[in-house]
Write a structure and sequence with these properties.
By secondary structure, this protein is mostly helical. The protein has one domain: Orthogonal Bundle (Hypothetical protein af1432), CATH 1.10.3210.10. It has 17 helices and no strands. It has helices at 3-19, 26-36, 42-49, 53-63, 77-84, 86-101, 112-133, 138-147, 150-158, 160-173, 177-185, 189-199, 204-211, 223-239, 256-259, 265-273, 276-283. Helix 8 (138-147) crosses helix 13 (204-211). It is globular.
């Protein structure tokens, strides 16, 4: 068997393994289904969330954090839904359920908090950038930012031997993570993340944004969302607000500058810097 055939077989096995991963968490699916139903009422959502007291406590922690800057304390799920709206509650529940689903133990190459700090900060940066650029679907930007590196946590949890090999290669051979992923797995975390999104029947735009979050200008179908997530990812690492070792050498895809109508590289640098205070404040109020 040739080396190419061996790689193809290994890739096929990985894809099959990824497709056999657990389904989307049940509470998340129920909440997201309700939020997608135009007939859903505030009581429907609050009754479901209130069945999980741990989830209630954490949703209220987020709702009362500086992220939303509300002038008064949010005492209940019902009030949180009324004040924040369905889309914001959707974001919070998705973020918290993802954190609970992938409970990976810390190890030499894995720091669970570092990963989720980066994911959550990228989500918040994506939402803020979407707001400022007039992108209508800010909740979509938040979710794409949250899940953009989902393939990494999946690799660490379900393909740990190869995860360690990848990290060893980066550490000892000074190669990039992407090169090591391709060499060892013939599959990148971008591809794994998209596969999982497809399995969970999440919106196509979301899977595409995850797949293209390192090179958004290659996405012919939804440039704007991919570009926002890429810029948010770059922003968190550039400002050191939720930076992540896998992105230590991240480079800005400068083709997104005209896509986002940001004028010049100098303007982009100033635009990114304008988020520093906001993101630093959010970093200190994360719900985990």
């Amino acid at each position: 068997m040739s080396e190419l055939e061996t790689k193809d077989n290994r890739r096929r096995n990985y894809l099959l393994s990824v497709r056999n991963l657990p389904s989307i968490p049940s509470v998340t699916k129920h909440v997201l289904d309700l939020l997608d139903d135009p007939m859903t009422s505030t009581n429907d959502i609050s009754n479901l969330i209130n069945k999980d007291q741990a989830l209630v406590a954490r949703v209220l922690t987020v709702a009362n954090s500086p992220l939303y800057g509300l002038p008064r304390k949010v005492p209940s799920i019902e009030f949180a839904i009324l004040i924040l709206g369905f889309n914001q509650i959707r974001q919070i529940v998705l973020a918290l359920s993802m954190f609970d689903t992938f409970k990976n133990e810390d190890s030499e190459y894995w720091n669970r908090r570092e990963f989720w700090e980066h994911s959550f900060m990228t989500a918040m940066a994506a939402k803020a950038i979407a707001d400022d650029l007039g992108y209508a679907k800010t909740s979509e930007a938040f979710t794409a930012g949250l899940l953009h590196d989902l393939g990494i946590v999946v690799t660490q949890k379900y393909f740990n031997k190869d995860f360690v090999k990848i990290c060893d290669s980066v550490t000892n051979k000074a190669v990039s993570y992407e090169f090591a992923e391709q060499h060892i797995m013939n599959l990148t975390h971008q591809e794994i993340g998209k596969i999982l999104c497809d399995r969970w029947h999440l919106p196509v735009n979301l899977g595409q944004a995850i797949f293209f979050h390192h090179n958004p200008s290659n996405n012919d179908e939804n440039l704007m969302l991919s570009a926002i997530v890429h810029l948010a990812d770059y922003t968190t690492n550039t400002l050191g607000c939720g930076s992540f070792r896998w992105d230590a050498d991240i480079k800005l895809d400068e083709k997104i500058i005209p896509i986002l109508d940001l004028g010049s590289r100098e303007y982009v640098d100033n635009f990114i810097e304008s988020y520093r205070e906001h993101l630093e404040e959010q970093l200190g109020s994360l719900p985990f």
